[in-house]
Amino acid sequence: MAGRLIYLIGPSGSGKDSLLEAARAPLAERGCRIVRRVITRSAEAVGEAAQGVSPTQFATLQAEGGFALSWHANGLSYGIPRQIDDWLAAGDDVLVNGSRGHLAQTRARYPTLLVVLLTVDQAVLRQRLLARGRESVAEIDARLARNAQFSDSLKAAPGVFLLDNSGPLAHTVARLLACLDAGQSACA
Question: Which NCBIfam families does this chain map to (predicted)?
Answer without folding.
Answer: phosphon_PhnN, PRK10078.1
